[in-house]
């Protein structure tokens, strides 16, 4: 292996180590309360070397956000590339549940961003939503999804249902004492998106009220 390859691998490893440490610290303390020296101590990478790879703390923060958003494509590369494949609501919602459930740090980072008044679009976010919107359009062309629904709005609704549950499930598990869990929520969320709330012909009749 050439020296150039070694240097490339070393640089890639260094960036990954810094991004991981910075992500954890930003999620724990917020952007303002995290210093580059904190990140250096947590990552074991020297302060000057972090500056060499990322520049400012703001640039590192952007890199952390991008890494988290692009994690979906790394986790589900086939789905992320299938921009012209009709969307399967069921499969997509299951993928979103899986990915978001595996990324608690991202939820904490999102919460800090809101608290600190950061409303900027995260790098990579438009690509993720554009792919979802394109797949909804492909499904509409195949008459698999209603054409009166706006693809962008439906994308946000699908993402929002799963995001809200994963972010708040610990609270609601306590509130409803275990009667709602990931499987039951996901099953009913899929049914809601696929079928709406109007009763179908074979829906069971509600029990008579006392």
From TrEMBL:
DNA-binding region: 35-54
Keywords of the record: DNA-binding, Transcription, Transcription regulation
Pfam families noted in UniProt: TetR_C_21, TetR_N
Origin superkingdom: Bacteria
One annotated GO molecular function: transcription cis-regulatory region binding
Keyword Magnesium: no
InterPro entries: DNA-bd_HTH_TetR-type_CS, Homeodomain-like_sf, HTH-type_TetR-like_transc_reg, HTH_TetR, Sco4008_C, Tet_transcr_reg_TetR-rel_C_sf
Chain ranges of the HTH tetR-type domain: 12-72
This protein's record includes keyword DNA-binding: yes
Protein name per its UniProtKB record: Transcriptional regulator
Source organism (scientific name): Singulisphaera acidiphila (strain ATCC BAA-1392 / DSM 18658 / VKM B-2454 / MOB10)
């Amino acid at each position: 292996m050439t020296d150039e390859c070694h240097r490339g691998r070393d640089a890639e490893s260094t960036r990954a180590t810094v991004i991981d440490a910075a992500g954890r610290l930003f999620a724990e303390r917020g952007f303002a309360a995290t210093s580059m020296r904190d990140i250096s101590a947590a990552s074991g990478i020297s302060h000057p070397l972090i500056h060499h790879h990322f520049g400012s703390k703001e640039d590192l923060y952007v890199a952390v956000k991008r890494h988290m958003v692009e994690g979906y494509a790394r986790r589900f590369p086939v789905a992320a590339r299938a921009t012209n494949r009709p969307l399967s609501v069921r499969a997509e919602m299951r993928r979103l549940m899986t990915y978001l459930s595996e990324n608690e740090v991202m939820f904490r980072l999102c919460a800090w961003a809101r608290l600190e008044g950061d409303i900027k679009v995260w790098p990579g976010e438009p690509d993720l939503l554009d792919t979802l919107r394109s797949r909804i359009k492909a499904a509409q062309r195949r008459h698999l999804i209603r054409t009166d629904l706006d693809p962008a709005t439906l994308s946000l609704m699908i993402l929002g249902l799963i995001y809200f549950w994963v972010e708040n499930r610990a609270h609601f598990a306590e509130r409803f004492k275990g009667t709602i869990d990931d499987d039951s929520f996901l099953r009913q969320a899929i049914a809601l998106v696929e079928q709406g709330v109007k009763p179908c012909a074979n829906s069971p009749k509600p029990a008579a009220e006392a």
